[in-house]
Amino acid sequence: MENHRENYREKARELVSQMTLEEKVSQMVYTSAAVERLGIPAYNWWNEALHGIARSGVATVFPQAIALAATFDAEMLQTVADVISTEGRAKFHEYQRADDRAIYKGLTFWSPNINIFRDPRWGRGHETYGEDPYLTGLLGAAFIRGLQGADREHLKAAACAKHFAVHSGPEDERHSFDAIVDDYDLWNTYLPAFEIAVRDAGVEAVMGAYNRTLGEPCCGSKLLLRDILREKWSFDGHVTSDCWAIKDFHEFHHVTSSPAESVALAVKNGCDVNCGEMFLYAEAAVKDGLLSEAEIDRAVERLLVSRMRLGLLGAPEVPAYTSIPYEKVDCAEHRALNLDVSRRCLVLLKNDGALPLDPAKLKTIGVIGPNADSRVALEGNYVGTPSEYITVLGGVKALAEAAGARVLYAQGCHLYKNSVADGRQLDDRLSEALTVTRHSDAVILCMGLDSTIEGEEGDASNEYAAGDKHSLDLPGRQQHVLEQVVAAANGKPVILVLISGSALAVSWADEHVNGILQAFYPGALGGQAIAEAILGKFSPEGKLPVTFYRSTGDLPDFREYAMKNRTYRYFTGEALYPFGFGLSYSTFALSDLAADAEGGACSLTVTNTGKTAARQTVQVYVETPGQRELRVLAGVGKVWLAPGESKAVRIALGKTAFARYDKDGVLTSIPGKHVLYAGLSQPDPRSVALCGTAPLRAELTLR
């Protein structure tokens, strides 16, 4: 392996030695120029693949990252990423044949986003794998492996772990904000997933964040890029800045006074390629003595090695990659996988027995809400173009009508405005929704958010918070419509489908509707998956990768990066729906827990005591007295059980189960008594009450 890498380095050094300073600098912006005399073609480093090939035409659009996280299934994430890179390769080689080297056409994908979703108000949280460092690291590493392929030296595609580090809002302050954390939170919350991405998964690229961390702009941070990433973790891939982040150094962070100084700070500390054009000032920085040409050489060599590892610049091609036909893009096989993944992402939050609905016993089903027939609500952000969309309305109509039931539809309200038709009448779609409710035997109410109001600054059109949320409430008139529909239903089943990328405070709904299904952003075929779940074609299996709080009053200030009272690991209040919670249409019993701290594993037997075949997620949590965390997720396992079936499940435990990082980032075992819980949820009283099955418990003493 090392011979391949060293050969690439030697070839890169040879190429760089023949370049002029101007030619070298031209390689350090995302629109890298051709150096024709050396056989180096132009290359655009910017491509996206968060949950499918994005912004580049037709592709399989999988559920958004936060939805994928709800599966708690690393093997599935790796399969999804492998399909994404297959489609990426197929599209790339066709683009090459057409000499199309534009943005979103390369093999360097700026995914996954492995920031910690520490606060539900953050608009970009739906790009992440949730609030837990262990789960984020587990799923992020799986996605990276799937995207890059099994051959560490010959990459199928290049993944990029972002945004390094301590980055999760506010969006409207990201260009000037300084995220202040202590050593404990830095090493035990914000960095573990990045370490796993680098050390375990071998990620090829890392993207710096916009903000400062501990006073240093992340894209030019000595602590993050040099001391930790390069030296401590031995990262030898390339680092890219976030887009136009280098100019923030002097314009908003005010840590430098000129473009040349900003470029020098970034390059000296290990940033190699600039999403933007600021690195074109590197030539001036060298001439002014702010940078050495050797520092430029180092960056360009890394970039050329990355291209060689992808089979470019004369490096050996891998026929398994280069022969992937275009027909693989959004093919029937990939669509079938996408539908299955969409099913597995759904989280059942409430069921008073009304679910699943039986369409054969219903004459009319009402489908109501601003997200009922919305394509945007399926997608999330950083998205491609599916060849087919199935909205909730479309999915319900297909299944219900096949069973002889009629489906009525009403929009009910705008997603966030007071009316649908130009503000001329408040609640101008409410009467129609109430009419549909009165004429239906059951109502499916589709509420929530979409990526136009929660997302990245500049992308989301939230006029209030640059893509972030001020509140966890349903926006606009949705709560009013919800209450009116429930009243009009007069005891008939009302099922609430929440389509959102983040947690919402739906306490009223929890008390008044019959069932709640959290769908996140479920992908192009998500409406079919939702319809199948509600109408009993399968049992939901998803678990929440984030905590659902009762209100913003439960949360610290959004700008506060200390983890105290944030996420399930530190929150001392009672959650509406805790992290790790999710119901099933079946019931389960647990037995025979055996735990081995030294061996780093535990086992137990799970029995399906219900009448429905179902897949379950077994979760292992560890409580370590004397630590800041209330408990930590330490392992997950998946099991499929037919009614009456029992299976033994063995779960490997993460390296932080009985250990924590010290102030220097050294993982240190914690002696003393640890309490391990293994079950279908967390061991807290709220989770147990909602789930109905208490986890098994074992005490372990480490010396």
Q: How does this structure look, described?
A:
This protein has 703 residues and is of the alpha/beta class. It has 3 domains: 2-14 and 23-328, Alpha-Beta Barrel (TIM Barrel); 346-546, Rossmann fold (3-Layer(aba) Sandwich); 588-702, Immunoglobulins (Immunoglobulin-like, Sandwich), CATH 2.60.40. Helices cover 30% and strands 17% of the residues. The strands form 7 sheets. A 6-stranded mixed beta sheet has the order 9-14-13-12-10-11, with helices on both faces. Strands 18-17-22-23 form a 4-stranded antiparallel beta sheet, with no helix packed on it. Strand 12, helix 18 (478-489) and strand 13 (494-499) form a beta-alpha-beta unit. Helix 1 (2-17) packs across helix 12, helix 14 crosses helix 20 (526-534) and helix 16 (392-402) crosses helix 20 (526-534). The longest helix has 24 residues, at 74-97. 59% of the residues are buried. The model has no long low-confidence stretch (mean pLDDT 96).
Low-confidence stretches: none
Oligomer: single chain
Amount of helix: 25-40%
Largest sheet: 6 strands, mixed
- Give the overall form: globular
CATH homologous superfamily identity of the largest domain: Glycoside hydrolase, family 3, N-terminal domain
Tally of distinct domains: 3
Radius of gyration: 25 Å
* Average pLDDT for all residues: 96
In the CATH hierarchy, what is the class of the largest domain?
Answer: Alpha Beta
The CA-CA distance between the termini, in Å, is: 39 Å
Return the structural class. Answer: alpha/beta
* CATH topological fold name of the largest domain: TIM Barrel
* CATH A-level architecture of the largest domain: Alpha-Beta Barrel
Total DSSP E strands:
23
Neighbour order of strands in the largest sheet: 9-14-13-12-10-11
Strand proportion: 15-25%
